[in-house]
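Model it.
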Amino acid sequence: MDDLVDRVRASGLLVEGQPVVVLLSGGRDSVCLVDCAARLSGAGVVVALHVNYGLRPEAAGDEEHCRALCERLGVALEVERAARPAEAGNLQAWARDVRLGAGTQLATTHGGALATGHTASDQAETVLYRLAASPGRRALLGMAPRNGLLVRPLLGVTREETAAHCTARRLPWREDTSNEDPTFARARVRGRLLPALRAVHPAAEASVVRTAALLREEAEVLDRLVADALDPGGRSIARDRLVGLPEALARLVLRRLAEDVTGVLCARAAGRLDEVLALRDGGALDLGDGARATLRGGVVTVEPTPPRPPPAG
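Modeled.
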């Protein structure tokens, strides 16, 4: 299965001699990734991180499996044990935050990247889930191969290919039964929606992944157009300039201003364009998600929404 290793090497996300922390659950994708990282970066610069949430009866076995695997590959292993607080919300979101938080801290300490085992199969599931749950072009962009410290070297590889790689290399993996639990929306996409799309066309999964890649490239062009439309400094735009832009681009400009100031996604901001353009000088409009647009001296600026005053008395 050297073809898979060559494809991962071609991504440029795993480089010989460069430190990398690999998130290792013990499943086929992460086992494949830690093996590729050891072969491409060098086992001495690879650290695997396993998070034991203690939520499943198999948790202790998963941890021991990861220890044995890392010992075989000559890779250092760090184990993070996490207990879910009673006030924690969504289980999967909490687990993801713990995993990425611990991984980012470890990668920063080692001066390297943080690699996850997301595959092309995960990419297709992500696009379909986001398309169903959150409208807008960003839902179609999927996951980026690189996002700051985070890299996804297997994003061009399917789940079937990672399984074949592990089988050929005689690397056992663990199965997480929660991945098939229809209680979770992602599992329903994996177990029901994707098979239905493959029944329509066998290349459905690959088509979704390819579409996301093309849209990501086009999004870079749109982002440059948005940046060019803003005033110097990128914090405001003249109202007359905003009026003169194509409506679709004007909506993107307004959303960019809102997201830059809040640091969070502000999908609702784009839908308030007409109301922003109708503001009188000195007026303000809450855009939602913690952003407020103001018009002063003919210039539109977006600021954080001020806190509500305490109740009287």
